[in-house]
Write a structure and sequence with these properties.
Mean pLDDT: 83
Strand content: 15-25%
Order of helices and strands: HHHEEEEEEHHH
């Protein structure tokens, strides 16, 4: 009885030896509990030194989100590249080859562009231009023209011959092939600029959404936290479920085949449909 009295007295006086097992467990609390949504292997590095909002949390969900978004952006850039490839740029300069003949010209000369007339061998004026280049070629001369002014309903590529403006001698230069327009710059520059703009804007948007915007980042961190609670099936469970699905597939296919066969025989006997070999 004295012992019990001493123990009770010690417990009342705050003696540690008088603490119960439950009280000892309460005292062994975790000083810094794990923040919800953070990875145990990664500490929260959002100490103000990094521009990334909560950079140590939701790592894999944020990484996979950025990867998928980047794939969509690259696909969009490729589509823009293709679409810009068919854009017709202005062509202030045109080049053409003149077949060897009596026609002679020089840079600075004003010329008339001729098209086919109604009758064979007939030429009609369809535009005016000025020669900027005139040089010897293998089978004639190559020339370049600019300041092209075409008549209504005609384009430069329709020119089949040229002659010096105001020349009454009838000397003409026959165009070999078709005139080729020289755009103000190469189309690949337009394609690269458009695709590059999509990539830069897309990358900036992804970085802002995944790394800087608090609302989006908090959602991704919460998603990462929920993914850690997912109970993934074991290999044995997956194999068992797959076998059940395959068995059910063949069983249902067999039942449908039998029903289809019985219906075909029945309707064949009552002459609703013709069976193979039937009259």
């Amino acid at each position: 009885m004295a012992t019990n009295s001493d123990n009770s007295s010690g417990a009342r006086n705050g003696d540690v030896s008088g603490s119960t097992a439950v009280a000892q467990l309460v005292e062994q609390r975790i000083p810094n509990p794990q923040v919800a949504g953070s990875s145990p292997s990664r500490r929260d590095s959002d100490d103000g030194s990094s521009p990334i909002y909560k950079g140590g949390q939701g790592f894999w969900v944020r990484l996979m989100t950025a990867t998928l978004a980047s794939m969509l952006i690259v696909a969009g850039a490729a589509w823009i590249w293709t679409q810009l490839g068919v854009v017709k740029l202005p062509t202030p300069k045109w080049t053409m080859s003149i077949r060897e003949g009596a026609f002679v010209a020089s840079p600075g000369k004003a010329v008339e562009l001729l098209g086919k007339g109604v009758n064979d061998g007939e030429f009609v004026k369809i535009g005016d231009a000025a020669i900027t280049e005139w040089k010897q070629a293998t089978k004639g001369h190559d020339l370049a023209i600019e300041s092209v002014v075409m008549t209504e309903k005609h384009v430069t590529s329709e020119a089949v011959a040229i002659r010096i403006a105001g020349d009454q001698s009838g000397a003409m230069g026959v165009v070999e092939g078709r005139p080729v327009g020289v755009p103000i710059f190469q189309p690949v520059y337009l394609q690269a600029g458009g695709a590059g703009l999509v990539l830069v804007l897309g990358a900036s948007l992804v970085f802002w959404q995944v790394g800087l915007k608090p609302r989006t980042v908090d959602f991704l961190i919460a998603t990462d936290s929920e993914m850690k609670k997912v109970n993934w099936s074991t290999r044995r469970e997956v194999m068992g479920i797959t076998q059940v699905v395959i068995f059910a597939f063949f069983m249902i296919a067999g039942v449908i085949f039998v029903i289809d066969y019985l219906f075909s025989v029945f309707f064949g006997l009552i002459h609703v449909i013709r069976t193979a070999g039937g009259g």
